[in-house]
Write a structure and sequence with these properties.
The complex is a heterodimer. By secondary structure, chain A is of the alpha/beta class. Helix content of chain A is 25%, strand content 23%. Classes of the chains: A alpha/beta, B alpha/beta. Chains A and B meet through helix 1, helix 5, strand 9 and strand 10 of A and helix 2, helix 3, helix 4, strand 1 and helix 8 of B. Bound molecules: iron/sulfur cluster.
């Protein structure tokens, strides 16, 4: 393998040797890649809601609204990040079974999963999850409904700001709407491997 | 004379396949245009910038490769190098063996298609499960992807329902929703028992060592949530200089590929999972793969290495739409494939030297390309290379020019031929002397041969005052 390293690097050097000049690295103005028509037309949460809806996501702004939606759709069994549960429990009441430990042997038992978002991007309706904020990667992925809990201060106006703020978390994932495919005859189907419904819940 | 292979293939395409490919690619293209031009005032400037950034990378790979290696290592990633497809596959197998692992879940990666990894692993006793819905269907069908972003664009729902039934995934049902749910149920069991996840990379950032993966289905996320070991097979050209360049390239990739502002899941990975995170790999490998790329780098077509595999050039290409991906006999079809596939053959270039001719040079591929690759120019360079190397494949479909050049250099013979050519007007199609003409006449009618009439007219025409006198004799004849 170390041989392959030398082989490849030698070939690369030989291939580039005849070039008289190398293409320079251009600098570029992030402004060029911002959808200015949208940003910052509104307050970030308002724009975020609009853009999340555009990618078939669902924004909610209270724990009571979330509990009502889950009850209406008969999603009564789920997982919740233990740190978030005390802030939500009062609204859930009768009929719900909410676990604060996730058991990967029973992935199909969880109809919903509630985890914390690390942030969001208003411009694109994107939720940002990372290893520090998300208690379990699986809990945000396997249930049919994923609820990402978001605070107002964590919403970036545009994608360029979100890129600039990427820290050293080993795993950051941007989720822009529910999991989907159009592989079969170009027909849109949601909920392929991940959630079929993506909710953003604003808390604080 | 033989037809070009791509034409032969296209001639035998099932009508339903042609329709599926045509509709699928056309839809993809229309969405792209709408989204890109709707969102940005100057999308062409973005394409140029992205092209310049990637051109800079490939022309400086000698510094970027050691830099990315150092960064990855510092992030706790184990780095491997593979000069060939075999070396890349062996590296994967060695990692599996060292862990006593026998089950792999795999996200879509084009480089693993190049190395035929799944096939290689299965032969060596490793179960290798494709998890992208399209790739999964291709796998159970023992088929090949026909598009780099939409692998089953050539299949319709009835084809898929039939193969699901054959493979024990439930009774025949061609509802796309049911097909998707069945795959969901089947594959989640596979993720949860797999030992190792294999992915590619859309980008690898030199500055941070960030490996970026995009999917819509969430399959690569599931791979990286359920398993303990992550192997990424990455072509050496996938590097970007800075994190901030992602803000440009990601915006272009989603819009160009599928007409989305962003792909649903965009994952940025810098190493094994965080200590407090219970899910995900605690071991991460990156295999940097050459497999012919350095040959491309050494050629005058190195610009093709900018490609970010978005598929836009396939969707817009009139030849791709009619012929479908399999006609290209390669992992990479369409305009990008017509350049890249023959080059990746290395010494065996002549075998695929016909592909650069599978283009009308209309230029649409260049116009849509998010990294502004001048594909038509590259195709022309490769046509020339095919000629220089006397490739039989490149010559197929070209009428022999020997007789023409003889006539064209002998004025008397030329004049005689112009008149004698009239016989064509009385020949039945089957007896036309030039095969290309016969083929053409099969579908359309030739205008009547009127050889010599123009010369006749020109000679008889009264000269206007002041016009130069006609040169007499000796001038080289032109077709009239
Ligand atoms: S050549 Fe350009 S348009 Fe074609 S797949 Fe590559 S990046 Fe996309």
């Amino acid at each position: 393998m170390s041989n392959d390293r030398e082989t490849i690097l030698t070939r690369v050097r030989d291939a580039l040797a005849p070039l008289k000049e190398r293409a320079p690295l251009p600098d570029w103005d992030t402004e060029l890649a911002i959808m200015r028509r949208l940003v910052p037309a509104h307050e970030p949460w308002v724009l975020f809601c609009e853009r999340l809806v555009a990618v078939n996501g669902l924004p909610l702004d209270s724990a009571a609204a979330l509990a009502a939606w889950l009850r209406e759709h008969q999603h009564l069994h789920g997982y919740c990040d233990p740190a978030l549960w005390p802030r939500l429990a009062a609204h859930f009441g009768e009929g719900f079974t909410v676990e604060t430990e996730y058991d990967r042997a029973r992935v199909d038992d969880y109809q919903f999963g509630i985890t914390a978002a690390a942030g969001a991007v208003a411009e694109t309706g994107t939720l940002i999850l990372d290893d520090r904020a998300t208690t379990r990667r699986l809990a945000a992925l396997t249930p049919w409904v994923h609820i990402a809990v978001l605070s107002r201060a964590a919403i970036f106006a545009d994608l360029q700001q979100a890129v600039a703020a990427m820290g050293d978390d080993p795993n950051i994932i941007w989720c822009t709407g529910p999991s989907k495919t159009a592989d079969v005859e170009g027909i849109l189907i949601e909920g392929v491997h991940g959630p079929g419904i993506q909710i953003a819940l604003l808390l604080g | 004379m033989k037809f070009q292979q791509i034409d032969q293939f296209a001639a035998h395409l099932r009508p339903s396949t042609r329709a599926a490919v045509y509709d699928g690619s056309k839809k993809g293209h229309e969405k792209r245009t709408q989204v890109l031009f709707d969102h940005y005032p100057d999308p062409d400037r973005l394409r140029q910038l992205a092209g310049e950034i990637k051109q800079h990378v490939i022309e400086n790979l000698d510094t970027y490769l050691p830099a990315i290696e150092a960064k990855l290592k510092a992030n706790g990633v184990i780095v491997h190098w593979a000069a060939t497809a075999e070396a890349a596959n062996e590296a994967v197998l060695a990692i599996m063996r060292a862990r006593n692992a026998t089950r792999m879940v795999k996200a879509k990666t084009m480089v693993s298609e190049e190395t035929e990894l799944a096939h290689f692993l299965e032969k060596n006793g490793v179960e290798c499960m494709e998890t992208d819905l399209g790739e999964f269907i291709v796998q159970i069908d023992h088929d090949h992807p026909s598009h780099i972003v939409k692998p089953i664009i050539h299949k319709n729902r009835r084809d898929i329902a039939t193969s699901f039934e054959k493979n024990g995934l439930g009774a025949y049902n061609d509802d796309p929703q049911t097909i998707t749910r069945r795959a969901r149920d089947f594959l989640r069991k596979k993720y949860l028992v797999a030992d190792v996840a294999l992915t590619g990379a859309n980008f690898l950032v030199a500055e941070s060592g960030r490996l970026v993966l995009v999917t819509n289905e969430g399959n690569s996320r599931f791979c990286l949530a359920a398993t303990r070991c992550h192997i990424a097979m990455v072509g050496i050209e996938k590097i970007l200089p800075r994190d901030r360049d992602l803000g440009l390239l990601l915006n272009l990739l989603g819009r160009s590929g599928t007409g989305q502002q962003l792909t649903v899941y965009t994952e940025f990975i810098t190493g094994p999972r965080a200590p407090a995170q219970p899910d995900g790999p605690d071991e991460m490998h990156v295999i940097l793969v050459d497999n012919g790329r350095t040959d491309v780098l050494a050629s005058d077509c190195r610009d093709i290495l900018r490609c970010i595999r978005c598929g836009a050039c396939l969707n817009v290409c009139p030849v791709y739409r009619q012929a479908s991906g399999h006609a290209y006999r390669s992992v990479y079809p369409g305009p990008v494939g017509a350049v890249l596939s023959p080059l990746l053959m290395g010494k065996d270039f002549p075998e695929k030297a016909d592909l650069p001719k599978a283009s009308s040079l209309c230029g649409a591929c260049n116009e849509v390309c998010p990294v502004d690759i001048p594909i038509p120019d590259l195709l022309l360079r490769l046509r020339e290379k095919g000629k220089r190397e006397h490739s039989a494949a490149a010559a197929a479909g070209t009428p022999p020019m020997g007789a023409w050049s003889l006539l064209a250099s002998q004025p008397t013979a030329w004049k005689a031929a112009l008149l004698g050519g009239r016989i064509i007007n009385y020949l039945p199609t089957k007896m036309l002397p030039i095969p290309a003409l016969r083929a053409w006449e099969g579908k359309r009618s030739l205008p009547a041969w009127r050889g010599g009439e123009f010369r006749h007219w020109l000679k008889g025409r009264a000269r206007s005052p002041g016009a130069p006198p006609p040169t007499s004799g000796g001038q080289s004849p032109r077709p009239s």
